[in-house]
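Lecture 7, part 2: worked example. A protein chain together with zinc ion.
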Amino acid sequence: MGNNFLKNRYRLFKNSTIIDAAGTRKADILIDPEGRIVKISQHIDISNHIELQAMLDTVDLNGNIVVPPFVDMHCHLRYPGSISESLMSGSRAAVKGGFEYLLAMPNTEPCSDNKKVIEDVKSVISYTETYGVNIELAGSLTVGRNGRELTDIEELAEYGVRYFTDDGSGLQDAKLMKQAVEILENSECIIGQHLESISNSLDGVMNLGDTSTKLGLKGIDRTWEIEMLERDLSILKSKNTRYHAMHISVKESAEIVHKSKVSGINITCEVTPHHLFFDETELLSLNPNFKVNPPLRCLNDVLYLRKKLNEIIDVIATDHAPHRSVKKELPIEEAPFGMLGLQSSFAAVFTALTQAKRPRELLGCLDILSIIVEKMSLNPRRILNLGGLEIEEGKLANFVVINPLKTICQTVSDIESDSINSPYLNKELLGEVGMVVLNGDFKVDDGKIVT
Ligand SMILES: [Zn+2]
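Predicted complex, written out as structure tokens:
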């Protein structure tokens, strides 16, 4: 990589390893000047095509991985209402992280609780400013996310809203959850739930346990997540409503999701890269960048989620949550919850999952890579019905090239977001998103946004 592609040229990618819904295979990929894939084959030989040779750039991918771009089912773009991110900066972070599609959460100001707000936001999303990244807006379940009155879910759904959540907080009122479940029964829409029953406390800082006791910080009890999941499942029983358990963080939640899937409940779930990467002991540093909700949990939870990722977890979603330094640098008790995620998610997940193995060659980690592709690209595409599951001839090139064995180390100047609250800063991670091609346009090359 590192080529400055010229317009009006063919591009031949030699020696790629494609991982998509059709499986894993070695292939050369030929792209025409319009960005269309004209041929995918184990070995593309152009020695007999003199004309083509004159207008061809060849790149040897050395076995590096080509996958359908990632889809993030959970990010906070903070627009409208906050300067901690913009649609443009969030999209830059996304495209650099290999994402093509974002589902933006509704906890904005104003919140996406009615057609007008969603219409207004949609009207300012321009394709060029978002670098070709598509942004879908989730609607809130309750008016102003106040938890007291349902939004006009039917009207929003008619308008095209497909995902409803009060994320930022969970919907506490069981009656309202039941009504929402009934309204959306047999529809394609999904209810996303932030699992946290907060009848007990509102000011927890970190996971309740030995570390919180040691630090004298208020805890967030794991049972609050489990309780709310169980409550919702009792509502969902015998209802055909799509339900997505957001950012599950404890072992028990994963076990419960697994059992309920087996029993036929229409449930999917996600886990964040940081719940696969860090455990609660990071809070010993008192660095507010580790303050997230749900909180970083015990090492046992982290290990369990890694181990059961393939079997139980449908999706890895970033929960990208930018906050300006002026807020994140407050004492940990007062700092807001959230960390950046879009730009670092692939490397964070790959590093977390390969820690024990420390792969030195690609063959040893293809199994892990295909699990990540499933959770970060294919499953979210299936759940949101986006298509693009395979890299195919005849279609505009739409893929990400990953260099799994390249080490990266992000510094503040690498961050594209308008905020810098990343816990991965100056940390060595394994795996680089080297190139991003969206609908025939080269967006990222050699790990940098193409301008
Ligand atoms: Zn949440």
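Residues 69-383 form a domain with the TIM Barrel fold (CATH 3.20.20.140). Residues 167-168, 194, 246-247 surround zinc ion (CB under 6 Å). Keep this in mind for problem set question 3.
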